[in-house]
Design brief:
The chain has helices at about 15-25, 40-50, 60, 80-90, 105-115, 130-140, 165-175, 175-190, 285, 290-305, 315-330; strands spanning about 5-10, 30-35, 55, 70, 95, 120-125, 150-160, 195-205, 220-225, 230-240, 245-250, 255-260, 270, 275, 335. α8 (about 175-190) crosses α11 (about 315-330). β13 (about 270) and β14 form a beta hairpin. The protein has about 350 residues and is an alpha/beta fold. Strands 12-11-7-10-9-8-15 form a 7-stranded mixed β-sheet, covered by helices on one side. A 6-stranded parallel β-sheet has the order 3-2-1-4-5-6, sandwiched between helices. This is Inositol 2-dehydrogenase.
Length: about 350
């Protein structure tokens, strides 16, 4: 079987990781083209990975009929235009990093454009669905291991930020809820098989002077009532001084499943006269590293086998819808209905 020829636009940290996985690790794929608005990034990848060609004009790739699919790993602000341009150019298979779009109007336009152009595969980068531990949790929940799910709890704490870097990042990120919690909501609705019905939130800017003036926050909690009756609780923060901290728990009538109660980097425990310590994972990138290859492997397999991805257009759309409702709930400290 011929290799799936992929082009990638966006060669920042995650984009370069995707390019490397396609080039070195996914044996049924070929890195055929790379694109970035930064010429030095294109030159660097061309030198290291030797793809078919490199360009600073993404339309050159979108119009290339020799490519089997496109990977979009650009800045979130460009997702809408790039997805629509690709679909209108006849690209039939797209993988795009989250979020789908930055406004409700954008995601409506993307959905309309993708469906109008009869795209074969649209995959969104909700990589946590490819984590082996979460996949095991999902299997056990579906098999009835914990009985009927009652409560799902999710904790997502980013390492402490450099203040100046956060203030620069915030205006283009969509804010804390939009930037950090769509991953968690996608995991929650996937694990328990239900969409949110009602939301209540509270949060604030606790650790970074100047963030509130940008209408952003650094900590929040959100309570969720799901359509199937499951209760949900989310907590997120940008103030974890000890590293990157993720927890998941699904509690049911017959038991509980938990993941990540301590963010250990590895299984080493250090002991000396100063006490007992364990090193923590330092970033989301380190924690979720194996999932980046797994999600692109799934994209390639879907193209070859004509199947649909684990996280598709509808999942991408619903996550952004939820994020705007959740932001309203936090900003107004009120209950918001998803109906």
């Amino acid at each position: 079987m011929e290799k799936v020829k992929l082009g990638i636009v966006g060669l920042g940290r995650l984009g370069r990781e995707h390019a490397a996985n396609i080039n070195y690790n996914i044996i049924n794929a070929e890195l055929a083209a790379v694109c970035s608005a930064v010429p030095e990034e294109v030159e660097s990848v061309m030198k290291e990975m030797n793809p078919g060609y490199g360009t600073t004009d993404y339309m050159e790739m979108f119009n290339d009929k020799n490519l089997d699919g496109i990977v979009i790993a650009s800045n979130s602000a460009f997702h809408c235009k790039m997805i629509c341009d690709a679909a209108n150019a006849g690209v039939k298979n797209i993988y795009c990093e989250k979020p789908l779009g930055m406004t409700l109007e954008e995601i409506d336009l993307i959905k309309e454009t993708v469906e109008k152009n009869n795209m074969n595969i649209f995959q969104i980068g909700y990589n946590r669905r490819f984590d082996q531990a979460l996949m095991s949790m999902k299997e056990k929940i579906d098999a009835g291991f914990i009985g009927k799910p009652i409560l799902i709890k999710l904790v997502n704490r980013d390492p402490e930020w450099n203040r100046e870097a956060l203030l620069k990042f915030s205006p283009t990120s969509g804010g804390l809820v939009f930037d950090m919690l769509t991953h968690d909501y996608d995991v929650a609705r996937w694990l328990i098989g239900s969409d949110a019905e009602t939301l209540y939130g509270i949060g604030g800017a606790y650790g970074y002077e100047g963030l509130a003036e940008l209408n952003d926050i650094d900590n929040c909690i959100i309570s969720i009532g799901f359509e199937n009756g499951v209760m949900g609780y989310m907590e997120t923060s940008r103030n974890a001084t000890y590293g990157y901290h993720v927890e998941y728990e699904v509690f049911g009538t017959e038991g509980s499943l938990r993941l990540g109660t301590t963010p250990n980097k590895d299984r080493v425990v250090s002991m000396n006269r100063n006490g007992v310590t364990t090193e923590c994972v330092k970033s989301f990138f380190e924690f979720w590293l194996p999932t980046f290859e797994a999600e692109l492997q799934d994209f390639v397999d879907c193209i070859q086998n004509g199947k649909q991805p684990k996280a598709g257009l509808e999942d991408a759309y619903k996550a952004v819808q939820w994020a705007f409702a959740a932001k309203e709930a936090v900003d107004k400290r009120t209950v918001v209905s998803m109906k």
